[in-house]
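Lab notebook, page 48
Experiment: co-folding of the full assembly
Goal: obtain a model of how the components sit together before planning crosslinking
Operator: M.T.
Materials (sequences as entered):
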Amino acid sequence: TQRRWCEEIRHDIDTFTPGLLSIYESLKPSEEHKAKQRQLIDSLAKCVRREWPNAQLHLYGSCANSFGTCHSDVDVCLEIDIAADGIAEVLLTLAEALRKDGFDNVEAITSARVPIVRMADSGSGFSCDICINNLFAVANTKLLKDYAQIDERCPQLSFIVKHWAKLRGVNETYHGTLSSYAYVLMCISFLQQREPKILPCLQLQDFGAENKESIAKLLWAFFHYWAFHHDYRNDVISVRMGNTISKQEKNWTTRVGNDRHLICIEDPFETSHDLGRVVDRQTIRFLREEFERAATILQYDDDPCVALFEPF
Ligand code: CTP
Ligand code: MG
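Observation: model returned without errors.
Model output:
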Protein backbone atom coordinates (compact mmCIF):
# COMPACT_ATOMS: atom_id res chain seq x y z
CA THR A 1 0.00 0.00 0.00
CA GLN A 2 1.09 3.52 -0.69
CA ARG A 3 2.01 5.45 2.45
CA ARG A 4 1.07 9.05 2.37
CA TRP A 5 0.04 11.89 4.53
CA CYS A 6 -3.41 11.38 5.92
CA GLU A 7 -5.45 13.81 8.01
CA GLU A 8 -7.48 11.14 9.61
CA ILE A 9 -5.92 9.25 12.48
CA ARG A 10 -5.91 5.46 12.21
CA HIS A 11 -8.77 3.92 14.12
CA ASP A 12 -6.59 1.59 16.20
CA ILE A 13 -4.11 4.27 17.34
CA ASP A 14 -4.92 3.77 21.03
CA THR A 15 -3.88 0.16 20.99
CA PHE A 16 -0.32 1.59 21.06
CA THR A 17 -0.78 3.66 24.20
CA PRO A 18 0.11 0.90 26.68
CA GLY A 19 3.29 0.07 24.78
CA LEU A 20 4.35 3.72 24.65
CA LEU A 21 3.62 4.19 28.32
CA SER A 22 5.73 1.20 29.19
CA ILE A 23 8.62 2.76 27.25
CA TYR A 24 8.06 5.91 29.29
CA GLU A 25 8.10 3.89 32.52
CA SER A 26 11.30 2.13 31.51
CA LEU A 27 13.00 5.48 30.84
CA LYS A 28 12.18 6.96 34.23
CA PRO A 29 15.29 7.08 36.41
CA SER A 30 15.31 4.54 39.25
CA GLU A 31 15.73 5.46 42.92
CA GLU A 32 19.21 3.96 42.74
CA HIS A 33 20.03 6.19 39.80
CA LYS A 34 18.85 9.26 41.68
CA ALA A 35 20.82 8.27 44.80
CA LYS A 36 23.98 7.93 42.73
CA GLN A 37 23.33 11.34 41.20
CA ARG A 38 23.00 12.86 44.65
CA GLN A 39 26.28 11.27 45.70
CA LEU A 40 28.05 12.73 42.71
CA ILE A 41 26.57 16.15 43.41
CA ASP A 42 27.60 15.97 47.08
CA SER A 43 31.21 15.23 46.27
CA LEU A 44 31.18 17.93 43.64
CA ALA A 45 29.78 20.42 46.16
CA LYS A 46 32.58 19.58 48.62
CA CYS A 47 35.20 20.23 46.00
CA VAL A 48 33.61 23.53 44.96
CA ARG A 49 33.15 24.77 48.50
CA ARG A 50 36.80 24.25 49.29
CA GLU A 51 37.83 26.36 46.32
CA TRP A 52 35.03 29.02 46.47
CA PRO A 53 33.35 29.06 49.90
CA ASN A 54 30.68 31.54 48.77
CA ALA A 55 29.72 29.84 45.54
CA GLN A 56 26.27 28.33 45.08
CA LEU A 57 25.67 25.11 43.24
CA HIS A 58 22.44 24.78 41.22
CA LEU A 59 21.25 21.71 39.42
CA TYR A 60 19.71 22.42 36.08
CA GLY A 61 18.75 20.51 32.95
CA SER A 62 17.06 17.17 33.03
CA CYS A 63 18.38 16.09 36.44
CA ALA A 64 16.29 18.91 37.92
CA ASN A 65 13.49 19.66 35.44
CA SER A 66 11.63 16.31 35.70
CA PHE A 67 12.47 15.43 32.11
CA GLY A 68 15.49 13.34 33.06
CA THR A 69 15.68 9.76 31.84
CA CYS A 70 17.91 6.98 33.06
CA HIS A 71 20.32 8.02 30.29
CA SER A 72 20.49 11.70 31.21
CA ASP A 73 23.64 13.43 32.33
CA VAL A 74 24.00 15.70 35.34
CA ASP A 75 24.02 19.44 34.64
CA VAL A 76 25.36 21.75 37.31
CA CYS A 77 25.68 25.50 37.40
CA LEU A 78 28.14 27.22 39.68
CA GLU A 79 26.96 30.66 40.75
CA ILE A 80 29.95 32.72 41.66
CA ASP A 81 30.65 36.43 41.92
CA ILE A 82 32.99 37.07 39.00
CA ALA A 83 32.93 39.04 35.76
CA ALA A 84 32.17 37.27 32.48
CA ASP A 85 35.80 37.48 31.36
CA GLY A 86 36.86 35.50 34.44
CA ILE A 87 34.83 32.41 33.58
CA ALA A 88 37.52 30.58 31.60
CA GLU A 89 39.96 30.89 34.46
CA VAL A 90 37.43 29.60 36.98
CA LEU A 91 36.73 26.60 34.74
CA LEU A 92 40.44 25.76 34.53
CA THR A 93 40.82 26.02 38.30
CA LEU A 94 37.72 23.89 38.77
CA ALA A 95 38.98 21.21 36.39
CA GLU A 96 42.23 21.05 38.31
CA ALA A 97 40.45 20.77 41.67
CA LEU A 98 38.21 17.99 40.38
CA ARG A 99 41.17 16.02 39.07
CA LYS A 100 42.83 16.34 42.47
CA ASP A 101 39.67 14.93 44.07
CA GLY A 102 39.96 11.84 41.90
CA PHE A 103 37.32 12.56 39.24
CA ASP A 104 38.17 11.03 35.85
CA ASN A 105 38.12 12.43 32.36
CA VAL A 106 37.86 16.03 33.42
CA GLU A 107 38.04 18.52 30.60
CA ALA A 108 37.56 22.30 30.56
CA ILE A 109 35.79 23.36 27.35
CA THR A 110 36.27 27.11 27.44
CA SER A 111 35.53 27.95 23.80
CA ALA A 112 31.92 26.69 23.63
CA ARG A 113 28.89 29.01 23.48
CA VAL A 114 28.32 27.99 27.08
CA PRO A 115 31.81 27.21 28.45
CA ILE A 116 31.83 24.18 30.74
CA VAL A 117 33.88 21.63 32.58
CA ARG A 118 32.86 18.19 31.41
CA MET A 119 33.67 15.04 33.28
CA ALA A 120 32.76 11.41 33.00
CA ASP A 121 32.79 10.02 36.49
CA SER A 122 33.77 6.36 36.25
CA GLY A 123 32.64 5.72 39.83
CA SER A 124 29.02 6.56 39.15
CA GLY A 125 29.03 6.17 35.37
CA PHE A 126 27.57 9.65 34.98
CA SER A 127 28.76 12.34 32.72
CA CYS A 128 28.47 15.77 34.17
CA ASP A 129 28.61 19.29 32.73
CA ILE A 130 29.41 22.21 34.98
CA CYS A 131 28.84 25.76 33.75
CA ILE A 132 29.31 29.10 35.46
CA ASN A 133 26.64 31.72 36.17
CA ASN A 134 24.21 30.43 33.55
CA LEU A 135 21.19 31.56 35.50
CA PHE A 136 18.89 31.44 32.47
CA ALA A 137 19.35 27.70 32.45
CA VAL A 138 18.48 27.58 36.15
CA ALA A 139 15.32 29.60 35.45
CA ASN A 140 14.19 27.57 32.44
CA THR A 141 14.76 24.41 34.47
CA LYS A 142 12.21 25.60 36.99
CA LEU A 143 9.76 26.57 34.24
CA LEU A 144 10.00 23.14 32.61
CA LYS A 145 9.56 21.49 35.97
CA ASP A 146 6.40 23.49 36.53
CA TYR A 147 5.03 22.42 33.15
CA ALA A 148 5.81 18.79 33.90
CA GLN A 149 3.62 18.95 37.02
CA ILE A 150 0.55 20.20 35.19
CA ASP A 151 -0.31 17.21 33.06
CA GLU A 152 1.45 13.87 33.04
CA ARG A 153 1.18 13.68 29.27
CA CYS A 154 3.78 16.46 29.17
CA PRO A 155 6.64 14.35 30.63
CA GLN A 156 5.28 11.25 28.89
CA LEU A 157 5.31 12.78 25.41
CA SER A 158 8.65 14.50 26.03
CA PHE A 159 10.41 11.35 27.27
CA ILE A 160 9.22 9.41 24.27
CA VAL A 161 10.20 12.14 21.80
CA LYS A 162 13.64 12.54 23.45
CA HIS A 163 14.12 8.79 23.34
CA TRP A 164 13.18 8.71 19.67
CA ALA A 165 15.50 11.64 18.92
CA LYS A 166 18.47 9.98 20.62
CA LEU A 167 17.94 6.67 18.86
CA ARG A 168 17.38 8.30 15.46
CA GLY A 169 20.49 10.46 15.76
CA VAL A 170 18.64 13.77 15.69
CA ASN A 171 19.67 14.89 19.19
CA GLU A 172 23.17 16.17 18.42
CA THR A 173 23.58 19.93 18.28
CA TYR A 174 27.20 19.61 17.16
CA HIS A 175 25.89 17.76 14.09
CA GLY A 176 23.25 20.35 13.43
CA THR A 177 20.29 18.60 15.00
CA LEU A 178 18.38 19.65 18.11
CA SER A 179 19.10 19.57 21.85
CA SER A 180 16.94 17.68 24.31
CA TYR A 181 15.92 21.03 25.67
CA ALA A 182 14.63 22.02 22.23
CA TYR A 183 12.58 18.82 21.98
CA VAL A 184 10.99 19.43 25.36
CA LEU A 185 10.07 22.98 24.31
CA MET A 186 8.54 21.58 21.13
CA CYS A 187 6.42 19.19 23.18
CA ILE A 188 5.29 21.88 25.61
CA SER A 189 4.38 24.27 22.80
CA PHE A 190 2.49 21.51 21.02
CA LEU A 191 0.47 20.74 24.16
CA GLN A 192 -0.26 24.44 24.65
CA GLN A 193 -1.81 24.52 21.20
CA ARG A 194 -3.92 21.38 21.43
CA GLU A 195 -7.67 22.01 21.38
CA PRO A 196 -8.76 21.83 24.14
CA LYS A 197 -5.43 22.95 25.61
CA ILE A 198 -3.43 20.49 27.67
CA LEU A 199 -0.99 23.07 29.02
CA PRO A 200 -1.47 26.77 29.79
CA CYS A 201 1.13 29.41 29.08
CA LEU A 202 2.78 30.02 32.45
CA GLN A 203 4.66 33.12 31.28
CA LEU A 204 1.83 35.00 29.68
CA GLN A 205 2.56 38.20 31.57
CA ASP A 206 -0.72 39.84 30.75
CA PHE A 207 -2.89 37.01 31.98
CA GLY A 208 -5.44 38.97 33.95
CA ALA A 209 -4.82 42.22 32.03
CA GLU A 210 -8.54 42.44 31.23
CA ASN A 211 -9.19 42.88 34.92
CA LYS A 212 -8.42 46.44 36.08
CA GLU A 213 -9.43 46.11 39.71
CA SER A 214 -7.25 47.94 42.23
CA ILE A 215 -5.70 46.27 45.26
CA ALA A 216 -8.12 48.11 47.58
CA LYS A 217 -11.08 46.79 45.68
CA LEU A 218 -9.62 43.30 45.62
CA LEU A 219 -8.94 43.35 49.35
CA TRP A 220 -12.50 44.50 49.99
CA ALA A 221 -13.84 41.77 47.72
CA PHE A 222 -11.61 39.13 49.33
CA PHE A 223 -12.91 39.83 52.82
CA HIS A 224 -16.42 40.28 51.52
CA TYR A 225 -16.23 36.83 49.97
CA TRP A 226 -14.99 35.13 53.12
CA ALA A 227 -17.35 37.10 55.32
CA PHE A 228 -20.60 36.88 53.36
CA HIS A 229 -20.37 34.74 50.27
CA HIS A 230 -18.32 31.64 50.85
CA ASP A 231 -20.54 28.62 51.38
CA TYR A 232 -18.86 27.20 54.48
CA ARG A 233 -21.35 24.36 54.69
CA ASN A 234 -20.80 22.92 51.23
CA ASP A 235 -17.72 24.28 49.49
CA VAL A 236 -14.02 23.52 49.31
CA ILE A 237 -11.72 26.04 47.65
CA SER A 238 -9.38 24.37 45.18
CA VAL A 239 -6.47 26.06 43.45
CA ARG A 240 -5.97 22.79 41.60
CA MET A 241 -9.38 23.14 39.95
CA GLY A 242 -9.37 26.94 39.80
CA ASN A 243 -12.76 26.90 41.45
CA THR A 244 -14.72 25.68 44.42
CA ILE A 245 -15.65 22.04 44.61
CA SER A 246 -18.11 20.34 46.90
CA LYS A 247 -17.28 18.87 50.29
CA GLN A 248 -19.39 15.90 49.33
CA GLU A 249 -17.16 15.16 46.35
CA LYS A 250 -14.14 15.09 48.68
CA ASN A 251 -15.94 13.26 51.42
CA TRP A 252 -15.13 16.15 53.71
CA THR A 253 -18.60 16.43 55.16
CA THR A 254 -18.73 17.57 58.75
CA ARG A 255 -20.32 14.93 60.92
CA VAL A 256 -21.88 15.59 64.31
CA GLY A 257 -19.19 15.74 66.98
CA ASN A 258 -16.50 16.11 64.37
CA ASP A 259 -14.88 19.50 64.34
CA ARG A 260 -13.05 19.08 61.06
CA HIS A 261 -13.64 20.62 57.64
CA LEU A 262 -15.33 23.77 58.89
CA ILE A 263 -13.41 25.78 56.33
CA CYS A 264 -12.00 23.73 53.49
CA ILE A 265 -8.85 24.60 51.58
CA GLU A 266 -7.53 21.82 49.39
CA ASP A 267 -3.76 21.51 49.07
CA PRO A 268 -2.96 21.69 45.32
CA PHE A 269 -0.73 18.61 45.35
CA GLU A 270 -1.60 16.70 48.51
CA THR A 271 -5.24 16.77 47.61
CA SER A 272 -6.36 14.77 50.64
CA HIS A 273 -4.93 17.49 52.85
CA ASP A 274 -7.39 20.11 54.02
CA LEU A 275 -5.44 23.13 55.26
CA GLY A 276 -8.54 24.06 57.25
CA ARG A 277 -8.31 20.88 59.29
CA VAL A 278 -6.78 22.78 62.21
CA VAL A 279 -9.86 24.97 62.60
CA ASP A 280 -12.39 24.00 65.28
CA ARG A 281 -15.83 25.30 66.27
CA GLN A 282 -14.40 28.10 68.34
CA THR A 283 -11.73 29.26 65.93
CA ILE A 284 -14.07 29.18 62.94
CA ARG A 285 -16.24 31.70 64.73
CA PHE A 286 -13.22 33.82 65.51
CA LEU A 287 -12.07 33.66 61.88
CA ARG A 288 -15.45 34.56 60.45
CA GLU A 289 -15.85 37.46 62.83
CA GLU A 290 -12.46 38.73 61.73
CA PHE A 291 -13.41 38.42 58.05
CA GLU A 292 -16.60 40.36 58.76
CA ARG A 293 -14.75 42.99 60.74
CA ALA A 294 -12.29 43.49 57.90
CA ALA A 295 -15.04 43.65 55.27
CA THR A 296 -17.03 46.13 57.33
CA ILE A 297 -14.01 48.34 57.94
CA LEU A 298 -13.16 48.38 54.25
CA GLN A 299 -16.78 49.25 53.54
CA TYR A 300 -17.42 52.00 56.10
CA ASP A 301 -14.33 53.14 57.96
CA ASP A 302 -12.86 56.59 57.29
CA ASP A 303 -9.35 55.35 57.76
CA PRO A 304 -9.45 51.64 56.95
CA CYS A 305 -5.69 51.38 56.62
CA VAL A 306 -5.34 52.02 60.32
CA ALA A 307 -8.41 50.25 61.68
CA LEU A 308 -7.84 47.10 59.65
CA PHE A 309 -4.48 46.43 61.19
CA GLU A 310 -5.20 47.48 64.75
CA PRO A 311 -3.59 44.86 67.02
CA PHE A 312 -6.07 42.52 68.69
N1 CTP B 1 19.91 24.83 27.85
C1 CTP B 1 19.64 26.13 27.52
N2 CTP B 1 19.74 26.53 26.23
C2 CTP B 1 20.10 25.67 25.26
C3 CTP B 1 20.37 24.34 25.58
C4 CTP B 1 20.26 23.95 26.90
O1 CTP B 1 19.30 26.92 28.40
N3 CTP B 1 20.21 26.10 24.01
C5 CTP B 1 19.82 24.44 29.26
C6 CTP B 1 18.44 23.99 29.65
O2 CTP B 1 18.23 24.34 31.02
C7 CTP B 1 18.53 22.50 29.52
C8 CTP B 1 19.93 22.26 30.00
O3 CTP B 1 20.67 23.35 29.48
O4 CTP B 1 17.56 21.82 30.30
C9 CTP B 1 20.56 20.98 29.53
O5 CTP B 1 20.41 20.85 28.14
P1 CTP B 1 20.27 19.46 27.42
O6 CTP B 1 21.40 18.58 27.85
O7 CTP B 1 19.98 19.72 26.00
O8 CTP B 1 18.94 18.90 27.97
P2 CTP B 1 18.57 18.01 29.17
O9 CTP B 1 17.21 18.52 29.54
O10 CTP B 1 19.59 17.98 30.25
O11 CTP B 1 18.39 16.57 28.49
P3 CTP B 1 19.18 15.20 28.57
O12 CTP B 1 18.27 14.31 29.31
O13 CTP B 1 19.36 14.78 27.16
O14 CTP B 1 20.47 15.46 29.29
MG1 MG C 1 21.42 17.16 30.33
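Interpretation: The chain has two domains: 15-193, 215-307.
Next step: discuss with group before ordering constructs.
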